[in-house]
Amino acid sequence: MEVKKRGFNADFDKIPEAVERIFKNRRLDKNLKKFKSRQPKLFNLAIISAIIVILVMYFIFPSSSVRAVSVDGNQYLSEEYIKNLSGVDTSSKLYLTIPVLVQRKLRHDPIISQASVSLHRGNTVSIHVTENKLIGYQDDNGNSTIWFGTGDSAALSSSSQEVKASIPKLIGFTDTDLLKKVATALNDVDDSIIQQISSISVYPLRYDANGLLVHMRIGTYFIATYTNLSVLNEYFNIYSQATDKTKCLWGTSKDQVAYTADCPWTQSGSNTEYWYDDAGNVRTDANGSPIEKHFYVDQNGSYALDANGNKIAIPIDNNGIEVIDDSFQENYAAGYYATGILDLPTLTQ
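The structure assignment produced for this chain is given below.
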């Protein structure tokens, strides 16, 4: 007997409309959930894209750059040096210039004690610095050290050597304690006076081994001890009233009173001898200090004498630097210093 097959396939194709809607809604719900799950990522991507676009536009347009940088409060350091130190110029972006970071850069220089940086309308940046008080500098084998009114010191960088032009050179200070005392004493001297000093040298006096010779830029001299350096505040008032301006100003009395008197190299009876030029003027070195004469000694430690019984001086060159004969003892014993200067025999002799 033949069994008739029912048309399952045909009936399955005829799915009721309600069931179709159920499947459709499920698909929509699934897609909606996917979209919602992606929304935060899309939102973040949009934000990041917008920020990138804004930054690119900010960097492209010249109106975002710093237009001018101003510096004030500087006395020793130049405006150009401070600008370079800050790292801010017309290629900098205004709102990427962070004052706190710039101030930190500036305070890395030992001369700058305080610094403030401000951003202003018109894309301008102002820098205000406060500098430590400088009283002088030392040179040693190409290295420079600056000294402050506090008695502290710091190495002077090669890029700020310009400050040496406005402060005195400190010469002959092998005693650090003495130099600290001089520095703290000069802290009470006005900056305008210190800038008028060319050099300060250790200059032992008969009654004080810590005497000082202060050479002023106008070519005059002040002789004092570190306890009397405050007299320098009245230096130009006293100098203007002096009748003989070739004399030195002395500030060695205990009562802080200055007076004019002959300079040590013009005083009769002085144990110190100096070099003079053909016009009778005392010769000075590159720092303006009078050049003392030094003399050779023989093998017994006594002054070496020429044929006339005069002490034999160590000669100096045009720069005031001593030209020492390394073979002096041999040449002296051979009689080559009979005239007071080295006179070696020629080959014909």
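Interim note for the steering committee: The mean pLDDT is 83. The helical segments are 8-13, 17-60, 79-86, 99-106, 176-186, 191-194, 235-241, 328-333.
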